[in-house]
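Budget justification note: compute hours in this period were largely spent on complex prediction jobs such as the one shown. Inputs:
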Amino acid sequence: MELLEVKNLSKHYKNFDLKDISFSLPKGYIMGYVGANGSGKTTTLNLITGILKGTEGEVRIDGLSHEEDMGAYKEKIGYVGDESYFPDHFKIKHIRSILKDFYPTFSADKFNGFIRKWKLPENKMIKDFSRGMKVMLMFASVLARETKLLVLDEASNGLDPVMRAEVLRLLQEYVMDGERSVIFSTHILSDLEQIADYIYFIHAGRTVFYDAKDDLIENFLLVKGESARIPPALKRELIGLEENAYGFEAVLPSDKAELLGNAFLFEKPTIDQIVIHYIKNKDMDTGKQE
Amino acid sequence: MRALYFLKIDYILTRKQMYIVPLFFVLALVTGKSVSTENMSLLVTCSYMLFVSTIFSTAPFGYCVGKNRGFLLLFPATVKDRVAGRFLYGISFVALLALLCGAVVGVYVMLGVEIPLWTLGAGLCELAVGIVITTLEILFFYLFGEGKENWQYLSNIVRVAPGMAMFFAASYLIDDAQAAVSGTEMDLEVMTGRMMQAGALAVAAALLLTVAAAAVCVKVIEKRDYA
Amino acid sequence: MKIIISNQSELPIYAQIREQIKEQILNGQIPEGETLPSIRQLAKEVGVSVITTTRAYSELEAEGFIAAMQGKGSVVLPTDNQLLREQYLLRIEEGLSTAIETARVMGMPKEELKDIFDNLLET
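Corresponding output:
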């Protein structure tokens, strides 16, 4: 059963186009939405939360679209951004009281539990919180109510390792019951890579690939060796060839492994390495067209 | 109902300025005392209060810009709820200061100062003007500047200028009105009745304008991103 | 049950999990009839994706080490002697193949290799 369905989502801007984003994320899974800065990650996530309006396309959460029932749709979403979205001059008590107003499923007890656990200061204004505190307050505010989908926009940026580990644990706990899902955007995968089930890679507003992470890692090889020895047949298949004075590094689809022979070193790539070489490849392609 | 939640948010956003409100009350009392030899001058004090109210009534726009607005946009509420809440804030703030004006007048009546009834009608007219100014300011902010950062400077002018103009115009008109009243041959009772009628009509018309402006804002904002 | 994931390993994570569970079933650390943690529980404990643990379990199932029981989770099956024998055989073959491969690379004659093997057996 799909929790999040995105169909042909497009958003047209004067100097940027997000085009034909389509994917579905099943219940109980975590998806990483990956791309360089400015590739359209935040635009996509804002279209999903409904605070942006798409030029074309459709988003459904748990079968429901924004147009059908905006209130119910928004209640299903818990959003954590890269910056605090709370008014600077609010204190925790204000946020608690307002969340109680707007969300019928909000539990003040749960909320207070998080506040105590993460030692968030009750008497300070949000603007005096540290970055980490702001992020954890956003998590507290969404985890204290019933949601179906967590949407995280670069939420773990700038968190210290201890808090990042806490966030990972939270996300895995969130999908534990197999009914709820997480989509997070990031430009660096690092530790989040481990828990992601699916990876969606976007570049310059276009889809590059979408697949189960384990399959992605298996479908590619990271190849290294001496530049002079690359046969032309291999060179055609290499993705994002990066050469320096001592050799080259590139990504190769695993089914082309027989082209390698014994002359090159190859190993299991990380998602980051696949992404980096893909971006390099795309940039070379656009370079050719110009 | 959700409009009231947004109203509450606006009051929390601007809670600091609520601490200043009693100060204006005291100020109005004191200045009222110094000019109350001519009893109509209480109207000057009252128009000053309304001037203050038109500045304060759009304060939430200044407190809630850029990223700070995210919280509000994510709520399961309609644009209508949010806009209604903001207009309610503006109008309720003007109404609050109008009540304080009433309190100032009340204090003077108790102190034995005679205040002619027709000034109440004039006060209602001033209230109507206050509502209109607040309405137009909110309309302006919604149409041109909602959520924009780096907008503080212009927004301060927009917030202060109309109220100030009203205040000076009122001071000027009050002198005229005073002259007119003392020169008129009309029966005081008839005139009081007419003034009251005019005041009530003006307030009703102003509130209608507010509703219309709110409807325009909803129509325009619903089409926008980040709304 | 112990599972340690290495990011340096050439083995994919699902295979590392599969191998470590298999190892512990074979040496009796996880007894027959024991219920393994759920796929999602394990993913959370180890800090890997659900798809990864799902794959590890389904491969263990295919190899006959565990079975998914309705409402009970994944249960360790009895490792009958045949299965055990096969697994050990497989390992012996793997180890010997590595040795033979190395001998070939350096061009060692068959007899010399057999001598080494015999010598090692006697020590």
